[in-house]
Amino acid sequence: MARKIVFTSGKGGVGKTTICANLGVSLAELGFRVVLLDMDIGLNNLDVVIGVEKRVLFDLSDVVSGRCRVKQALIQDSKFPNLYILPSSSGKVENISSSSIKNVVSILDSSFDYILLDCPAGVDAGFHRAVFSATEAIIVVTPHLSSLRDASKVLTLLNQYHLEAKGLVINRMRGDMLLNGEMLDIQDIVRTIKLPLYGVIPEDDAISRSCSVGSFLESVESARAFTLLCENIHNGSKKVYDCTYKYRGLMGYIKRSIRKRV
């Protein structure tokens, strides 16, 4: 039986889709069979982040409407053969209900180790449609008060579902600003959201570049952060990436000073 994890945030633009995609890659690299479900109907872009948008023949709407089977809509990644994506629909959503999504997830359940659902931003019907089929949830936040406020609202809604586990991922953390006291502290964020910390992802231009061109991370630092996140989720370990290490000591102080001036 697959672990069914929904990625949500409340606030848009926090990097939720990027986290979902790169975690899927990390799990696939470890040999797990992973399928990514784009639940952002109408504003779907998970296929673009993965880089398979030109290979889409069928989407979630086609599956739900009976125009194709689930297997026909799945796209296998060319670089990671254990990774699949079920693209979302860019059209109408009337025929896509929470129950229909759960039926699709049930079909995939026996064929995969992980089913990762990329939830749309906000807390409207799209949010509930995505969470309905999940057994676990990961809230993605950035170290900003507005993001934490939205995440708290999302957590209140998630508590209405019988989820087996909920965790927190902090994205776009800058080690230099953290050491300078210019960014919310990690432990303060954890105390605010009151969820187990699954991982910290650093602010990294390589992540933005990879998402822009539909490729995966080649940055050693960010790749390491996602590897630790993957291990924490799968093994229950608690190794969090230290985004401050290269800004410590004399050379680190110089780097912080230069970046601050920039």
Strand order of the largest sheet: 3-4-2-5-1-6-7-8
Task: Give the distance, in angstroms, between the N- and C-terminal Cα atoms.
Answer: 50 Å
Structural class: alpha/beta
* Proportion of beta-strand residues: 15-25%
Shape: globular
Order of helices and strands: EHEHHHEEHEHEHEHHEHHH
How many DSSP E strands?
A: 8
Tally of individual helices: 12
- Give the C-alpha Rg: 18 Å
Helical percent range? 40-55%
Report the major sheet. 8 strands, mixed
Q: Give the mean pLDDT.
A: 88
Uncertain residue ranges:
none
Task: Compile the SSE list and pairings.
Blueprint (H helix, E strand, L loop, with lengths): L2 E6 L7 H14 L4 E5 L7 H5 L9 H6 L4 H4 L1 E2 L6 E4 L11 H12 L4 E5 L6 H7 L4 E6 L3 H14 L6 E9 L1 H5 L6 H8 L3 E6 L2 H9 L6 H16 L13 H13 L1
Parallel strand pairs: 1-5, 1-6, 2-4, 2-5, 6-7, 7-8
Antiparallel strand pairs: 3-4
Helix pairs in contact: 1-11
Question: In a nutshell, what does this entry contain?
Answer:
The protein has twelve helices and eight strands.
What does this structure look like?
- With 262 residues, the protein is of the alpha/beta class.
- Strands 3-4-2-5-1-6-7-8 form an eight-stranded mixed sheet, with helices on both faces.
- Helix 1 (16-29) packs across helix 11.
- The protein has twelve helices and eight strands.
- The chain is 43% helix and 16% strand.
- It has helices at residues 16-29, 46-50, 60-65, 70-73, 98-109, 125-131, 145-158, 175-179, 186-193, 205-213, 220-235, 249-261, and strands spanning 3-8, 34-38, 75-76, 83-86, 114-118, 136-141, 165-173, 197-202.
